[in-house]
Amino acid sequence: MRKRTLSHTLQLLIALTILSTASIIGFIAGSQLNSSVNRGSERILSSTCSELGQTIENQLQQTQQAAQTLADYVTRSIPAQSLLQDPKFYAELRKDLDEMVSLTVTATPETTECAIHFDPDLLPEDAACGIVQKRGPSSAQFFPVVSKNINAIRDNEDWRDIINVQMPLWQAPHADTAGERQIVLSYLVPVFSDRILVGYVSIDTDYDVLDQRLADIKVYDTGYAVLTDANGAVIHHPSIKSGTILYDDNPELARKLLDGKPNRMGVTGPVSAKVHGVDKLLASTTLSNGLVLILAAPKREIFQRRDTMAFLVIFTVVLTALFFLIVTTMIASRLLQPLNALQKAAARIAGGDFDVHLAATGGAEIATLTRSVQQMAERLHGYVNYLEAQTYRDVLTGAGAPRAYEREVTYRKDMVSRGEPFSVIFFDVNHLKQVNDHFGHEAGDTYLQAAADLIRSCFPNSELFRTGGDEFVLFPEGSDLKDRYQLLDQMDAAMTRLAGEEKPVDRISISYGIADLEPGKDTTYEMLLARAEKAMYAMKERLHITR
Fold first, then answer.
1. CA triplet 287, 288, 293: central angle to 5 degrees?
2. CB neighbour list of residue 525: distance below 8 Å, 6 or more residues apart
3. What is this structure's pTM?
4. Which of 78, 387, 404, 494 can pair with 392 through a Cys bridge, CB separation 3.0 to 4.6 Å?
5. What burial class does residue 264 get, using C-beta atoms within 10 Å of its C-beta: 0-12 exposed, 13-18 middle, 19+ buried?
6. pLDDT value at residue 75
7. What are phi and psi of 203, to 5 degrees?
8. Eight-class DSSP state of 223
9. What is the distance between the alpha carbons of residues 514 and 475, in angstroms, rounded to a whole number?
10. Average model confidence (pLDDT) for the chain?
11. Number of neighbouring beta carbons within 10 Å of residue 327
12. What is the DSSP string of 133-162?
């Protein structure tokens, strides 16, 4: 029996090592890749659901704030409930409130109707029991409708709802009673005087806007958005009729989505379910008006990238193993060093460290393999960076996004509890709405970017966070903290120079308020931020700026 030579033995050992290493790399990389991409895909679905829900919430909150502001104004305008019986007082009141209704509808462009209704029993005889303004043929035109039917309010479902709950409430989407809009969302706020319910404020918003927004949502290739009420009755669905109970044939899905615990983004899920024979992932979030927003997408589409990358990993591992098996018979000694580098790089990639730098040494085949692994690491790294950038960086202004601001606030709260000194500056960009209204949203975006750039130029060593549409927060750091007041003076001087610019969009104007932590007085971060915000509004008053 012919004995194996040392060379053959070494080649066999190397071949076995290569096969073992390739298998381990493939298994670890495949497992880590599968887990990482699965988590990333689920986070994308949750994040998309959260962002869409927040967009809708912003619209709802705008309506809520407008209605509550109008209701508060009505309450302040009626010193005593008995004054409503005075014809002269009531006539003057209606004239004043008519102007306020006009201001309210101007500030809420998606409003179709704004109304103030009073209890006719509390009014002069035969007096009109309310003020109603409806949107005219033009989206910017509103026209008044006098409410003369004294019994109308008694027959009004809105009035019955307000009497029952005596607190602000959203009504489910319903047909507009005037028939001018097919479906509307109504928000009602009661009005009290002397602790007596004297009427209510109602604002109707066009549901078609929300419906179209939901219809335009594309989740991956064939995913879609669904809107239901709290009981699962369909309000919007691309293929199911409104009113159908979504969970009749899947009670387990109802339990997961309706009773599940939301995550820190306010999203329940994603949960896995078979819908019409297709395996899907679903995520949901409950809106402030009680409606439930659901995003659904086929698992096949969500994990398509995972399957493709898994195939590439397997293909690369198999090709690598075959390649090295052939090479070991010719250049075994030269093979060990580059293989070692590849093995270490693959382990780092499998462990989530994509910052690898591989030199294309050795033969042409090894160099090609090295470049392939490098490119794979770079692509994975880019994918992770893209996800992080989308989450933590505001695309328009380059400032930190709300998620980044929340992370910073956690750190600042710890500083408050330790009594470590720091300052917070609250910025609000003035005239943004006027720029949007008169020059378009593209000019408004440019105006907002210029405002953010001006703040950063004055505070070059500090991170700027965008916390709202036209609101920013900054925590001065280093020399910026030391010179914070001088830097604010420089920013005032810069805005004074810009005020003389020919183009209105170049006249950057920003109101701000600064608050320094006072240990013992500021026991929470929210107290410190409230002082900064109060100072900002004081500056607005000095400048005679409403927004």
1. 10
2. 409, 412, 413, 416
3. 0.46
4. 404
5. exposed
6. 92
7. -130, 125
8. B
9. 10
10. 80
11. 20
12. EEE-SSTT-EEEEEE--TTTTTT-HHHHHH
